[in-house]
What does this fold into?
Amino acid sequence: MLRAISKKICLLGDFAVGKTSLMRRFVYDLFSDKYISTIGVKVSRKTVAVPDAGGVVELTMMLWDLGGGDEFERVRPSYLRGAAGAVLVCDLTRPETLARLRDYAGELRAISPAASLVLAANKSDLADGRQLTPAQVESAAADLAAPYYLTSARTGEGVEGLFRHLARLLVA
Amino acid sequence: MIPRGHDVDSTVAEHILGDLGVAYAITDAGFNVVQESGSVDILWERPESCLGRCLIDCVPELVGCEDLLADVLAGDLPRFELAWANRETADGQTLYLTIVLLPYRHPSGRDSGLVYVVQDVSDMGLVDRQLAQSRNELRLLQEQLTRQNLELAAANAELRRLDKMKSAFVSVAAHELRTPLAPIRGYLEVLLDEDVGHLNAEQREYLEILRRSVQRLLVLTHNLLDATRIETGRVELVLRPADLPALIESVVAEHSAQVEARAQRLEVQLSPGLPPALCDEARAVQIVGNLLSNAVKYTPPGGRIDVTLAPAGEAGFLEVSVADV
It folds into this structure.
């Protein structure tokens, strides 16, 4: 039996960690090296089929790519309302972006306590500049009770797996 | 002919809203669009009418916000606003929109629904994005700079540690080298003084060579120890009033044989009537001696070397200079 549902998913994390790039890689299979700041929110959608006990669920993921940083702190709660899940994104070359994920997760859970989380440790392709070890990412993910993926929006590494994992959590 | 009454008002209102980049739609209680006004390009995700369709199906930003819409409809929430919603147009441009949802009450009081208002704030959005872009790029540079400074500080600390180790090693090595030199020199003196037997000319010549070599080694180890003392800040200066002109003349006299051997010309200019200078005499001799020795060594044969002593630019100081011309 085919069941069709839509879920709102927010991409959260500091500025320039690669939220927009991850979203573009997943939805359009595109990547650009040029950094363009996001202000506000850009909603994109992608429908994926997720196996379920009773058959297959056609899940439309409404992906909310939110502007990162403190500037949107005031308006972020209005963006987070109704979120069923979130991708918490940090940059493997900037350790402070991993530490900040606890704040983003706290903000989301204050508004949507049941939201499912996954953690994306992005820019895994930048091996030379990497400042975070997989163990540090694993520890932070465990603190947030979220599965984690090392991702690269540039190469596509881990991106599909990350979003599919979240899709399974949302359907379960 | 201009229509009268309500028609005039609505035409003007439409004109004003259009000029402000505002469009709106009204829904019934089931969120179905019953009226739309203004540009469909900013109202809906796709540039086509949504009359009769569910508002949530036409506005992606409202997916997941069903409970919120119900709260606005019931009057539990006076309004819901979403700032800076990005929409991409068919030609790839980004529109920045402010979305507002308000409760709608028909004047008759019979029907209720929602008013969905959209304002195109792209002009402001583009400026804001440019500002955010510059701010974020600056922050990235600051973060990079901070990281590099930390790395540099760590590298500096490591270099200091290695330098300290090197100084300690050189100091120990110099001491160890100097220790056996003292008995060697002592026995050489005994031999040269013929205390243990007569020396022929050849033997004396060889022993003199040995003595000069031992002397050079002593000077070398002494210099090494001095260098480590300077590096570790253990040099203690004994400051006393000294007659610098006499000191310089004695150093010059010590080097005169070398200067002559290289056919160099040594010009010494000592300002008359200088007062005694407060300095460590032994170190002063060493410094002037080293400078002069270098000058002799690196000035070509036949060249000129100037040694001067004069009041320095700063009052209360004297300046010694050794220049090879």
